[in-house]
Amino acid sequence: MASIKKRVSNMRSYYLARLREYSKVNPNMSIEDIKNYLQIPEERLVEKAGTTYEKFFELLKTPTREVKRWTKETIIESLNIALDKGFLKQSSTFLKNKDLPNRKTICKYLEVKNNWNEIVKAIGRDECIKVIEFSREEIKEAYLSLFSKEKKYISLKKFERKTGITFHYIRYYFKSWNNFLDEIGLEKVKNPFLKNEYTDEEIIMIYKEISEECGKPNGATYKEINESKKITKNLVASRFGSIQNLREVAGYDVSISKNIIFHKDKVEKIILKILKKKKKNSLIPSEYEELRKDYNLPSVTTLKRMYRVTEFKKIWKILQDIEEK
Hints:
It is a single chain. With 325 residues, the chain is an all-alpha fold. It is 61% helix and 0% strand. It is built from 19 helices and no strands. It has helices at 2-25, 31-38, 42-49, 53-61, 72-84, 103-110, 116-122, 136-150, 156-163, 167-174, 177-183, 200-214, 222-228, 233-240, 243-249, 264-278, 285-295, 300-306, 313-324. α10 (167-174) packs across α11 (177-183). It starts with a helix and ends with a helix. Mean pLDDT is 77; it is low at 188-196.
């Protein structure tokens, strides 16, 4: 599809270029003149170039944009004019100045790195060099100071707002925000706790405190962990794999937890054993609900999800096939 669009676009450009050359000889040409010159049926023209004779006629009346050819000398001259007029107070204004090429072109002709200070040095305007207001260590200290007060991950936007240190400095020293977080000892994911700040035993102890504060005899949930701001879901998941595993090592009774993890093979064995005992091939939902509490089985909804079916009765056909095998 993309290749067809490109071919149509190329043909449109080809015909337009031919017509522009012809217009130099016949500047007052009409639509009929264009038709006589190209000698292509309009239906075929639309098919090949994706446009009509009338559209070509309108395009020819539009003046062509003059393409400015830059040299090192013209770039230096234009930069000096812009600096003298105060148009280039900071590097971001390169994007807004129509009298200059893009920054990549400037750096190419001046043979310098894509850096504001390197550019102004190359044209002899040392007075325009930007003085770095924050050192590498000051930036790291500013983040860690804010982090110790907030006790949670600080986003780039919030860091800029609270400290006045913009992403320009992060990029200058650390190349990226993730590299910066890595260097100060934070996970690349938004984990608000320093690496190895807590041992597994300390996390278990904190989890027990949170559970006691929330009045949860079977252990606090992920939501309650995050709300406590003492530890986070990400920290628990990275150390223990799941909240269920943390509950177990913390000594809570996971068998009565709301978040029981059911294993399909164990569930199948229990259900087949029940069917054999009752001498039945299937159960209706109400029968199953009565039995599941005694045998610690998943709910009807969970069971349907486990077997990827939408109707409860389809589960029994699957189980019969398993038993026959």
